[in-house]
Design goal:
Structural class: alpha/beta
Bound molecules: zinc ion
Strand order of the largest sheet: 1-2-4-3-5-11
Number of helices: 12
Helix content: 40-55%
Shape: elongated
């Protein structure tokens, strides 16, 4: 019995000791976490101050890009200005990565995790920065520079990646094929829009270049000798208009005629058009491609014109929104006074080459409101918004939220693991 008493009292002592030790470690863990929590809040407050202090220079750069619009793969000025800014702020810059002259990669820090912030800076023909890519570029460099403090505190690295020609050539698709994103853990890019939304719904998209070859003849004296390539094109557009009534919900087929003949008194021997075909999922895009092609083939048979076509090499993939990452971004935007939505069914669908990146790396592509809903992206009004005070506010909030989200990612390996887990599911 004594033995039992002795044993039980020893067990009691051990149990008490164990309890005390576990309490000690738990409270030490708690205070460590509390300390980290304070460090995170302090870093985020510093980031807000830093972006506020840099707002003047970021605005100036954004307006400079806005008033010097450059089309895809010709963004030499924007690339030079952006990389100069990053270089001046301790980033090591590699211009012309992936054999694309106007692409770049700017890195800060060492090792994993590697967090990428994407910058677009191409404009639209005639409309200039009607997609607000000047704001994307400047929020990316602002966010990148402000996030340096998080790298200094927690380690890891940040890459600001300049991705040209989003609008018409799918620059990121080419860069993805050439391995630009193979070493990334997370990717973020913020696009200006007409509502605050943490996620984006996009359509898979492919381009189509079409030509008809007919036979020239005098349009009045000998029309019977001609084969009218313009009529073949018009007939194709009419067939597509008929097809459009019977395609699935958000699918889109649209295009322009780029050659409709040379003179009214010559039967057009050549016509050409650029088309885009979009769908909510990849299999339906393939189905739709065939239906669209049949419209052109039918017109070729009807008119006798010869059809030549080429599908674009760059196919814009659907956007995969990483919701864990989107929630972090949402929290940070909330602290800045913006209420982000998750999927806005009212929001118009487009396509983005960020979709292709999101298939490779956990990604987000949130929208930040810079204009009221009645204004549409790719319009002169939106181009004006991209240089307005609301645009600058969007830039500033986007840069802050990007850098604050970098803090969250670096401070917590658990969060990164959760993001990864969601991605591989
Ligand atoms: Zn656009
Ligand atoms: Zn855009």
């Amino acid at each position: 019995m004594c033995i039992f008493v002795a044993l039980s009292s020893r067990l009691e002592i051990l149990a008490t000791l164990g309890y005390n030790l576990s309490m000690y470690f738990r409270s030490r863990d708690y205070s460590r976490r509390e300390g980290e929590g304070l460090a995170i809040e302090k870093l985020k407050a510093q980031i807000i101050d830093e972006i506020n202090a840099r707002c003047g220079e970021l605005t100036e750069l954004s307006l400079k890009i806005h008033s010097n619009p450059e089309l895809g793969f010709q963004e030499h000025k924007a690339q030079a200005w952006l990389t100069r800014y990053l270089e001046a702020n301790d980033f090591s810059v590699e211009p012309g990565i992936c054999k694309l002259a106007t692409a770049f990669k700017a890195s800060y820090g060492k090792g994993r995790p590697v967090i990428a912030i994407l910058a677009e800076y191409d404009a639209l023909p005639d409309l200039g920065h009607a997609c607000g890519h000047n704001l994307i570029a400047c929020s990316a460099i602002g966010g990148g520079v402000a996030a340096k403090s998080a790298i200094d505190r927690f380690g890891g690295s940040i890459q600001v990646i300049g991705t040209p020609a989003e609008e018409l050539h799918g620059g990121k698709i080419i860069m993805a094929e050439r391995g630009a994103f193979s070493d990334l853990d997370v990717a973020m890019m913020i696009h200006p829009g007409v509502c605050d939304s943490a996620t984006t719904q996009t359509l898979a998209c492919v381009s189509l270049e079409v030509e008809f070859w007919g036979k020239a003849a005098h349009a009045a004296a000998r029309p019977e000798d001609g084969i009218n390539a313009l009529e073949a094109m018009l007939l194709s557009f009419t067939a597509i208009n008929s097809l459009r009534q019977h395609i699935k919900g958000k699918s889109r087929i649209h295009g322009i005629i780029t050659d409709g003949g040379k003179a009214a008194n010559i039967v057009p021997a050549h016509s050409a058009a650029s088309m885009l075909v979009r769908a909510e999922d990849e299999p339906y895009l393939d189905e739709l491609k065939q239906k669209v092609l049949n419209c052109f083939k039918g017109a070729a048979t009807a008119t006798g014109a010869r059809l030549k076509y080429r599908w674009g090499d760059e196919r814009y993939a659907l956007m995969r929104n990483n919701l864990t990452l989107a929630k972090l971004f949402t929290q940070n935007m909330k602290s800045l006074g913006r209420r982000m939505q998750i999927h806005d069914p009212e929001e118009a669908f487009g396509s983005t080459d960020m979709g292709n990146l999101s298939q490779l790396v956990p990604s987000i592509h949130p929208f930040v409101a810079i204009a009221p809903r009645k204004i549409t992206v790719h319009s002169p009004q939106f181009a004006a918004a991209a240089a307005s005070e609301a645009g600058i506010r969007g830039l500033s909030d986007a840069a802050k939220a990007i850098a604050m989200t970098v803090v969250d990612l670096l401070a917590s390996p658990e969060v990164l693991a959760k993001i990864r887990q969601e991605f591989i599911k």
